[in-house]
Design brief:
Elements lengths: L5 H33 L2 H4 L1 H4 L3 H6 L3 H8 L3 H15 L12 H9 L1
Helix pairs in contact: 6-7
Length: about 110
């Protein structure tokens, strides 16, 4: 068994404390970096710009589109073409109807 003097024990303890502090600071930096990317920019705009405005941003990113609607853009467009006549509303003097693509996007979500 190795025996350490009191001075050696103190030096070892100080070195271990310093390493622990460095590891904590590295962890807090990586946690902060993860939190920055935690919410995609498109999701941040949802409250101010509405649900359907996400659709325009999702068109540019196929993976995000799939994660949001659980279908590819191609499948969404095929479904829209099949349902377009059924979900289109007539325009009146008092208001404009919700467009069929927006109606489908909100319904799927």
């Amino acid at each position: 068994m190795v025996e350490f003097s009191q001075e050696e024990v103190i030096i070892i303890a100080l070195i271990l404390d310093k390493e622990e502090e460095e590891n904590k600071s590295k962890i807090s930096i990586t946690n902060k970096q993860k939190r920055i990317v935690w919410v995609h920019d498109l999701w941040k705009k949802r409250k101010t710009e509405g649900e359907f405005t996400l659709y325009n941003g999702l068109i540019d990113d196929e993976q995000k589109f799939y994660e949001y609607f659980r279908m590819s853009q191609y499948t969404f467009n095929v479904l829209h073409k099949k349902l377009e006549n059924l979900i289109t509303k007539q325009e009146t003097h008092w208001r404009k109807p919700i467009p069929p693509k927006e109606r489908l996007a909100v319904c799927l979500r």
